[in-house]
Amino acid sequence: MWIDCKTIARSIEERTKERVEKLGFTPKLVSVACTDDPSALSYLKSQRKKAEKLGIAFEIMNVSPEEIVSTLKKLGSDESVNGVFVARPFPLGLDEKEILSSVPVEKDVEGVNPVNLGLLLYDEEIFPPCTAEAAVRILERETNLSGKRVTVVGRSVTVGKPLALMLLKKGRDATVTVCHSRTVNLEEITKNSDIVVVAVGRAHFLKKNMVKEGAIVIDVGINYVDGKLQGDVDPSVEEIARVTPVPGGVGQVTTALLFEHVVRAAERQRK
Ligand SMILES: NC(=O)c1ccc[n+]([C@@H]2O[C@H](COP(=O)([O-])OP(=O)(O)OC[C@H]3O[C@@H](n4cnc5c(N)ncnc54)[C@H](OP(=O)(O)O)[C@@H]3O)[C@@H](O)[C@H]2O)c1
Fold first, then answer.
1. CATH number of the domain bearing residue 58
2. Would 181 be classed as within a structural domain?
3. Percent of the chain beyond pLDDT 90?
4. How many A from CA of 10 to the centre of ligand 1?
5. pLDDT at residue 20 in the model
6. Is residue 141, in this structure, part of any structural domain at all?
7. Closest Cα to atom 31, ligand 1: which residue?
8. CATH number of the CATH domain containing 202
9. CA distance linking residue 215 with residue 107, whole number of Å
């Protein structure tokens, strides 16, 4: 069965819209870009569309590689800006950690600054990474996570690792296993899991024989194969498990959460 992520995204957007109206001013998101990567550009385009729909002001700042860090730092003190996003991938040779550390902590709506990531260790989700949060929101709609065996395949800083921490959070109480390219017997681990989250970046990586019947599967993958968008989960998995679709799954919840975070940032700054 396919999991209906559209409804989840829509309800997040409706609440965001209501919160925008209550703010009494128009919150603003600035996306800093130094890339010509087609999927990054398409994400910026969809941000513009979504911002318009939600009543949020939006600006793209195209900068040179030399300007990224200083631009991000300046945006920290610009009172007209509530949220700051920086588009990835970065040009080769740039220090990703330095760039992400320069995203102002209180405007870090994508949850990429090491300060916001570090707070996850303390179970504090002020600005958690949007994709990891999207996986959690979807799972919480589908099941009670307490005591569930969850396997996260992928250990990236943006998805796998923060997601593992969020699932472990007191109150959520999942039992989490994190797998990666050096994991031995991956199939045995995923097959014994109530929930599998796949963030690997390989089209149709998770096959039906790797999943327990009745499991919940979250497909984070975005892979373009012959110009067609495909997830990390083989479509046949849907015959035995509840699976998030690609497209129309985690991605749209992620974007909805980005804008929820813009409003959260605006509310916190107003205080
Ligand atoms: N929907 C969204 O909003 C969203 C957001 C972000 C990313 N994504 C997509 O999610 C996917 C993952 O993104 P990412 O940034 O987390 O990727 P990443 O940084 O490339 O990490 C991929 C992870 O997969 C692991 N891996 C690779 N081959 C494997 C194998 N054969 N068995 C087990 N693990 C394996 C890697 O292990 P090692 O660490 O050992 O190399 C790594 O930890 C991509 O398709 C990306 O486009 C989607």
1. 3.40.50.10860
2. yes
3. 98
4. 26
5. 97
6. yes
7. 181
8. 3.40.50.720
9. 36
pTM exceeds cut of 0.85: yes
Q: Quick check: CB of 221 below 6 Å from ligand 1?
A: yes
Amino acid 211: pLDDT = 98
Q: Please report, rounded to a whole number, the percentage of residues in the chain having pLDDT higher than 70.
A: 100
| Domains of the chain: total | 2
* Strand partners for 61: 32
Average pLDDT value for residue range 87-98: 96
The closest of 125, 131, 85 to 262, measured between CA atoms, is 85
Q: Is 127 exposed, middle or buried (0-12, 13-18, 19+ CB in 10 A)?
A: buried
Sequence-distant (6+) residues with CB within 8 A of 235 are 204
Instruction: Go through 43-63 and write b for each residue having 16 or more CB atoms within 10 A of its CB, e for each that does not.
Output: bbeebeebbeebebbbebbeb
Q: Which of 72-76, 140-144, 201-205, 266-270 has the lowest mean pLDDT?
A: 266-270
Res 271 pLDDT > 80: no
Choose which residue among 200, 219, 243 to substitute to test ligand 1 binding: the one with the highest number of ligand atoms within 8 A of its C-beta: 200
* CB distance 212 to ligand 1 below 6 Å: no
158 lines ligand 1 (CB under 6 A): yes
| Residue 7 within a domain | no
| Ligand 1 binding pocket includes 201 (Cβ within 6 Å) | yes
Q: Give the structural domain span for 82.
A: 23-104
pLDDT mean across residues, the chain = 97
